[in-house]
Every structure is written in C-alpha cells, then in structure tokens.
C-alpha cells in the first residue's frame, strides 16, 4: 500500500503512527480506541494531518452516550418511573425513551443530560408535571429530601427524627432534629444541599418519623 503524501509540504511520504487513547463518559463508561497520527520526514509536520480522529472520537462518544442513557433508563423501572409518563411530562414524542432504551436511536448530548438529571433526581418529573410552578417545585424538593433523609436513618440507632419549616414575615427556616446515632451535622449537610433556594411558604410543612 502506497504511503500518503504530506498535505503540508506536498513532498514527504508520511509515516503512520497508531496511538491508543481512553475516552470516558460522565456515567463512568470508559472505552479505549486507536487513533491515527502521521509524521512527515521532510518537513517534520506531525499529528492528525487529515482530521480523521475527530470523527472517530465523536462516533465513539455517541456510542458511549447511547449505552449510558440505555443503562439509566433500565433503572427507571426499579424507581417506579413509567417511560410513557416521563415522555408525557417532558413533552417528548411517544416511544422516544423506548428507542433510547433499546439503542435504536442515539439521544443528543442535551437529551442525555436531561436523563442524567432525572435519573439522579426523579422528583424533577413531579416538578415538570406541576408545570414548573415555583412553590410546588420547592415543596416537592423538600419532600424528596425528607424521604432520602429517612432512608439514611434506617438501620441506625436513631430513635427520633423531625423536620419542618418555621416561618416569619421575611423568611423561612428549614430545620431537622435528631436524637442518638447519626450526627445532626451530617444530616444537615444533606438536607441543606437538597433544600437550597427554599423560599417562604404559606403554612408550615412539617414531617416526623419514629424508628
């Protein structure tokens, strides 16, 4: 097979060099692929002189994205998320999620990001179903934080847990009280991050839990 001529100087017969690189996806998927680089003995130009590697890398990222989204959609069933219901509230065409799940259609990067958010925070579907109403969204957010909080305390020696919102004319305070076992600080770190942006509610929203 004849060697390719350098596109820079038009003289040198290029030496092809194969290099292995590892690509990673935000979901933790990793793939090792080979890319081609060239070196000209005449002008010493080297690298991806024909722009071939960008296409190879992007094609591989698409495959990884499709695999990651399919894997996340597989988990929807265990989280009791209906694909058809998710399509409805997210205003996606029918069977879009099914096509992503069986990898017959590759989701865009923005669509994959949306699925990652929903997989991480399933309660976002409730927010969407409530037409992104700010007050409802805040209540859904806090309720989800409390459910996670209770899951964290199962099996521990916590004897009681209570949380709620105390409000005055200007602001609202979201509080958590615990006895024994897990430190209040470790719980508050979780709840604080989950309830960022909490605003004034009309009426207290209180929750209590006994082990």
Structure report:
The protein is of the alpha+beta class and 211 residues long. Among the domains are: 67-124; 130-210, no CATH class. Helix content is 41%, strand content 20%. It has 7 helices and 6 strands, in the order βββααααααββαβ. It has helices spanning 53-76, 83-89, 96-101, 109-120, 124-129, 134-153, 184-194; strands at residues 15-24, 30-39, 46-47, 160-167, 172-179, 207-210. The strands form 2 sheets. Strands 1-2-3 form a 3-stranded antiparallel sheet. α1 packs parallel to α4 and α6 (134-153) packs antiparallel against α7 (184-194). The radius of gyration is 26 Å and the shape is elongated.
Strand content: 15-25%
How would you spell out the order of helices and strands?
EEEHHHHHHEEHE
Principal-axis shape: elongated
**Strand order, sheet with most strands:** 1-2-3
Low-confidence stretches: 193-211
Secondary structure: number of strands: 6
Mean model confidence by pLDDT: 80
Query: How much is the radius of gyration in Å?
Result: 26 Å
Brief digest:
With about 210 residues, the protein is α+β, with helices and mostly antiparallel strands. The protein is built from seven helices and six strands.
Helix and strand topology:
Elements: E1 15-24, E2 30-39, E3 46-47, H1 53-76, H2 83-89, H3 96-101, H4 109-120, H5 124-129, H6 134-153, E4 160-167, E5 172-179, H7 184-194, E6 207-210
Antiparallel strand pairs: 1-2, 2-3, 4-5, 4-6
Helix pairs in contact: 1-4, 6-7
């Amino acid at each position: 097979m004849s060697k390719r001529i350098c596109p820079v100087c038009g003289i040198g017969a290029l030496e092809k060099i194969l290099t292995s690189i590892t690509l990673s996806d935000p979901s933790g998927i990793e793939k090792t692929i080979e890319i081609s680089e060239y070196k000209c003995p005449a002008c010493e130009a080297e690298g991806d002189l024909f722009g071939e590697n960008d296409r190879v890398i992007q094609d591989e990222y698409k495959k990884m994205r499709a695999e990651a989204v399919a894997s996340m959609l597989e988990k929807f069933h265990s989280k009791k998320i209906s694909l058809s219901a998710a399509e409805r509230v997210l205003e996606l065409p029918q069977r879009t999620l099914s096509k992503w799940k069986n990898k017959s259609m590759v989701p865009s990067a923005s669509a994959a990001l949306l699925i990652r958010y929903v997989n991480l925070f399933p309660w976002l579907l409730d927010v969407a179903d409530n037409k992104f109403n700010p007050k409802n969204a805040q209540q859904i957010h806090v309720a989800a934080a409390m459910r996670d909080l209770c899951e964290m305390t199962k099996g521990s020696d916590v004897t009681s847990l209570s949380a709620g919102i105390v409000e005055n004319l200007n602001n609202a305070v979201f509080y958590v009280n615990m006895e024994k076992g897990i430190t209040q600080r470790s719980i508050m770190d979780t709840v604080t991050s989950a309830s960022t942006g909490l605003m004034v509610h009309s009426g207290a929203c209180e929750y209590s839990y006994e082990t």
